[in-house]
Amino acid sequence: MESLKPTYFLFLLITFSACKSTAQWEGQGPIQVVETKDQTISYQTKQTWDAGNGVFFSNQLEGARLNGVQRINDTLVQVTILPENEPINPSPWYAFKLWSGNTQEFWIEFSYAGKGFHRYFPKLSSDGKTFSNADSSNFFQPKDEKGRPEKAFLKVNASADTLWVAAQDKIGTAHVQEWKEMLLQKDFVEVISIGKSKEGRPLEILKIGEANDQEMLMVISMQHPPELTGFLAMQAFVEEIIKDTPQAKKFRSKYNLYLMPQMNPDGVAKGHWRHNVGGIDLNRDWVNFNQPETKTLAYFMTNKMKESGGKFVFAADFHSTWEDIFYTNNEELDGNFPGLIPKVIKKSSKRIPGYVPNIRPNEGKERGVTSNSYFFFVHQAESMTFEVGDNTPRDIIKMKGSYLGQELMKILNKKKCK
Ligand SMILES: [Zn+2]
Predict the structure, then answer these.
(1) Gap from CA of 160 to ligand 1 centroid (Å)
(2) DSSP states of 322-374 as a string?
(3) Rg (Cα) of the chain, in Å, rounded?
(4) How many angstroms separate the alpha carbon of residue 281 from the centre of ligand 1?
(5) Where in the chain is the domain with CATH 3.40.630.10?
(6) Which of 33, 105, 166, 270 is deepest in the core (most CB within 10 A)?
(7) Cβ-based neighbour number of residue 153 at 10 Å
(8) Which residue intervals define the domain Peptidase M14 in the entry (predicted)?
(9) 387: annotated active-site residue
(10) CATH number, span 173-414
């Protein structure tokens, strides 16, 4: 830490004890902008394939991704999975269903036509709603010389009963809607429509709390369609906030949490690898605001502040990657509640035996193109991106999300004045 002049300490002391405003940094420097104007995407042809031997494959369901089916031999069918457009980050989502006139075992070969490597361990479902991991003895992924799985093989047992195969435990947007409806049963939760996606799906925020909007929180997830594990952590986090505990009640009387659980509904519905239907990575559009999903949320936040005269003290964006990582802002820069994020992460992580969180503070001091940067540099909200591992056990995800919620409320409830 740099040495600070005594007058600066005095300034900090006065600022914190008055709880009116917090120390600000100066000179953000130039913003690195990424092009986010619409790109052309290729749409899947929705269809059912006759794969021979009485076997059928279909992508005729919301959230599906399946671009081609080809029988290789009696016991092997190749499926081709392609991205919506390129360049694109390696996040090859797949989801489809299959059935067979006669019960039979055969292998499915996942092929990405050189555009990606297999990433998601297959999940299976017999009702399209509840998924569980395929038996590991029925799955293998040969690696190339650099250790990357160019293809993968899954043995399935097909019958007249439909079998769903997907990259994660949920497909499509319906489960999000169901969860939102559950939250809306609470009388302190209301829905705010902020606009529509390019395909006309509602862009909705839930307001959770009964406070006066002087201190607010913003939580978002699923900018990137396949990132369900981030969504699951966000769910556990939010489910703490809505509880009937004295802690949660107190929290809701002091703070309103604004939640956009599904930032990219079109991308989810289309089974995209990463982008919205404008062919854009939404998490690169928080400076340009060329896409409706980012533009409407930014408008909502700015307007909310103007209208209420309040401020956002905390913001979180939940994602998924190979392992659990917290991306935070430069710890030398202060927002509306200096030190909040490291404290919340450390306190919640400590409760999980043996868990040492991987925290990566941004070393830069300039605004970037991501949500995390927007929340911090524009709104001075203490913000973090929580990337949850693709394969982190679901009970651990739940624990991490819940503890984050509990510790955040504990710290914010202790805050002396507004
Ligand atoms: Zn992401």
Answers:
(1) 37
(2) SS-EEEE--TTS--SSTTHHHHHHHHHHHTSTT----EEE----S--SSHHHI
(3) 23
(4) 9
(5) 173-414
(6) 166
(7) 17
(8) 156-415
(9) yes
(10) 3.40.630.10
At position 78, the amino acid (one-letter code) is Q
From the list 84, 227, 382, 387, the catalytic residue is 387
**Cα separation values, 413 from 103, 219, 244, 247, 405, Å:** 58, 18, 15, 8, 12
Residue written as tokens 């820069």? Answer: 333
Cα separation, 61 vs 44, in Å, equals 12
Cα of 185 from ligand 1 centre, angstroms? 29
Going from the Cα of 228 to the center of ligand 1, the distance in angstroms, rounded, reads: 10
Q: Report DSSP state, residue 63.
A: T
* Token pair for 98: 């299959």
What is the Å distance from ligand 1's center to 371 Cα? 11
Q: Start-end ranges of CATH 2.60.40.3120 in the chain? A: 48-166
Burial class of residue 268, CB neighbours in 10 A (0-12, 13-18, 19+):
buried
Per CATH, domain 48-166 is 2.60.40.3120 = yes
Q: Which long-range contacts (CB under 8 A, 24 or more apart) does 394-397 make?
A: 394/169, 394/232, 396/352, 397/229, 397/232, 397/233, 397/236
CA of 282 to the centre of ligand 1 (A): 9
283 CA → ligand 1 middle, Å: 8
CA distance 416 to 18: 10
